[in-house]
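User: What would this chain look like folded?
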Amino acid sequence: MGSILVTGASGTVGRAVAAALASTGESVISAVRNPAGSEFALDPPAGTPRAFDFSDPTGWAGAFAGVDRLFLLRPPAIANVADTLIPVIDTALAHGIRQIVFLSLQGVQFNPATPHHAVEKHLRRRRAPYTFLRPNFFMQNLSTVYRDGIRERGEIYLPAARARTAFVDARDIGRVAARVFTEPGHLGSAYTLSGEQSLDYYQVADILSEVLGWRIVYARPSVDDYLARLAEQGAEADFIAVQKMIYRVVRLGVSACPNRVIRRLSGDPATTFRQFATDHRDVWS
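Assistant: Here's the prediction, encoded as structure tokens.
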């Protein structure tokens, strides 16, 4: 049996997937843009590092040497999947890949405007040996993308109104990915991964307040105010557009429904937000 190539291995989800796979004894190849870089050297993901760049097709064939399975995710900076992820898929299939686990998006089947939809469509069209993981919002968004607002201003500033979200911990995605790679019966399947709790951002702020020991508030801005703040902070237009779309979906309640798919696939319950906040409390200190 060959190795598993994990793209985005230095990021939040890829790192969790590489770690979970390595813990099962699988041979893991962690794909990173620059294995010799200082940032990578300080905090390497699990597995053997291998240079891989979605924007450099000359290195794709070599990346699949000895690989028979692929964990594929779309880096946030990549909007044009037609010139990146889709030809990577074709390269993988040409090298005889026997499973592609694609990190997609909750509700993607109803949202053809997303790049994830195009990737899923291509995998189906190619009759690829796919498994789709469609996660809800990551808890890690609050400890990374939105961390500074919480840490520096004591506020969660997002236009979600009173809508609820069944947040998912990236570590749980890693555990699920490890199972679908190492157990039979998952080819051609699509799994929506949500937490087992559904929380609004007032509740999220209350839990953070209790765990951190200081007051966090949910500011509940309007969409226009939120987008204006992003622009003032220098956010790219593509990022602003994605944020507008994301929180429209949230306000429609698409992300509100909890489920037990993580429990069913991994054998353990989904991580609660309180446990996540406790485990990561230092990032907001």
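Residues 28 and 175 are 14 Å apart (CA to CA). If you want, I can go into more detail on any region.
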